[in-house]
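thread: overnight batch results

M.L. [08:02]
morning all. the overnight job finished for the chain we discussed friday. pasting input first so we're all looking at the same thing
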Amino acid sequence: MMHKYKINEAKNCLVDKHIAFIGDSRIRQLFYSFVKIINPQFKEEGNKHENIPFEDKIASVKVDFLWHPEVNGSMKQCIKVWTEGSVAKPHVIVAGAATWSIKIHNGSSEALSQYKMNITSIAPLLEKLAKTSDVYWVLQDPVYEDLLSENRKMITNEKIDAYNEAAVSILNSSTRNSKSNVKMFSVSKLIAQETIMESLDGLHLPESSRETSAMILMNVYCNKILKPVDGSCCQPQPPLTLIQKLAACFFTLSIIGYLIFYIIHRNAHRKNKPCTDLESGEEKKNIINTPVSPLEILLQSFCKLGLIMAYFYMCDRANLFMKENKFYTHSSFFIPIIYILVLGIFYNENTKETKVLNREQTDEWKGWMQLVILIYHISGASTFLPVYMHIRVLVAAYLFQTGYGHFSYFWIKGDFGIHRVCQVLFRLNFLVVVLCIVMDRPYQFYYFVPLVTVWFMVIYVTLALWPQIIQKKANGNCFWHFGLLLKLAFLLLCICFLAYSQGAFEKIFSLWPLSKCFELNGNVYEWWFRWRLDRYVVFHGMLFAFIYLALQKRQVLSEGKGEPLFSSKISNVLLFISVVSFLTYSIWASSCKNKAECNELHPSVSVVQILAFILIRNIPGYARSVYSSFFAWFGKISLELFICQYHIWLAADTRGILVLIPGNPVLNIIVSTFIFVCVAHEISQITNDLAHIFIPKDNSSLLKRLACIAAFFCGLLFLSSIQEARH
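M.L. [08:03]
and the structure it wrote out:
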């Protein structure tokens, strides 16, 4: 993967550095493209056949181009000066030349022999410089012979290959007993093989190609200094932290423990194996059926989780698998969308119940939204603003379901017990906490989980605080409905205050230990931005649940199988308004020109398309009576899919794509997707199994477990502070 360096990043990397480019017109092109990363306003002007200096005095960066079109005595003398110590050596030297030698000597074999002699005399000097500086020899790009002018016709790809072979052979053998320190820069040559046809003169690369070459050169030198997450080349694997080492030990012991337990259990099973009755030939069955113990479930779950986490680490932290950049095209996004839509429609079944937003329907809704979001991420569609705005609505719809689902549960059941709270928090956060430990990432990095966790707690506190108003109490007196609306109004007031008071928001979440959860890169701005982007939609979900359940209680809605939700006239009017609203939002989102302006409006208007979709999906009785089992299956593991994609489907913390099978993109996507979905499903099962163990229904046992979990997090905070002190 190639990190695209911004101006300030490039300057930070190259501060107090001197870079020298030595060679012909092709090296001059590379020089210009490199300098334009630091200063995009730098112009290609002046006499081309002379030295060209560049200096950024503020950043103290100096880049020089030295005109030496041939590998000869002149180039040797230039390099020799740096080896003698009287002149300061450049920190980076980029050299290369050959086409002038071919051109001037008309491609003669004598010229090639002279080139070999000259580069042999320069090789020891370059090797000496490479001990203290980064030295790169640029291999010659191929040419497009049909476009070459008459005075360049002797420059053929056959001769260029001969010169490259000579350079590689001599420079690599310049040291007898060790590997050469002079690095071969062959990237430009590989790029030219694909793009030289777009050249204006057949010799020089098109601008986009040389910009890529310059950016790769910047990656080669700067990645090891700045260590960008999406710069996968040329930087060492980060060392394991103390917490990661302890996690590795824990999972290793869990695997060993489970294997010992399995062997003992299997031997005991063999002893109790039913024997065959010799007379009847029938097996005498054992009456006692040993139940699976919680210890076995615990060890088995951590054993599987340990193996899965090892795979996560190998995919996105170890330099084991390749990673590639995303390149968005309309076809890469819309064709998979159409494909999964067809599959979803094909696999449909009747629902068990026909209520609005029944369980099968919400699972289906989560499923198709999650699949669309996954395609959006892997195709890099965030660069296309209309798609980005529609995906924002899907994220908002998830939060809408959070408000709707949790409000409905508390309103109907009235269960504000600690067991329910702990169960939800465990299921939401278990995987993310493990990944924070294993992948050495902050909690806020997985921004959606903190978002739904905080909103769940907001819903819980809003409804659990005195006076606790639930459906059973409200049915006896309509005054309680008014009381609940006052609670929701107060919640909306608090949301508005925090949304327009960034200082107050940041003060709250910068308090220890909240800061440990919500800080990213040393501040909580990212958390404020994420929270603010969908600030009203959970409230909308709660309000919708309240109105729907009130109408349902008063039997205003017809939720029988095949029946429209309202009378025919009202249903048709609402359907028409919903379709128009849905399309109006899509037209507005598609006409967005500025992301910042559209994001400012999004919190207020996203609910329009969400409500329109709910009404279109639920007003017709036949639509409410069926659901897609294909989408619903994915909906049940939607949270795991969203989190796992960060490391085992995408790569470099979602900035790139994981490459398990190089050279075959289609097969790579098929294989990585299959593994990714299987892992997400397995993690969902593990989370459910561990939830029953860590969150028991018995309150006394639960309090003991919570004390252990609190001690675990205290230990984690202590170890984290030790790591920070070391850094």
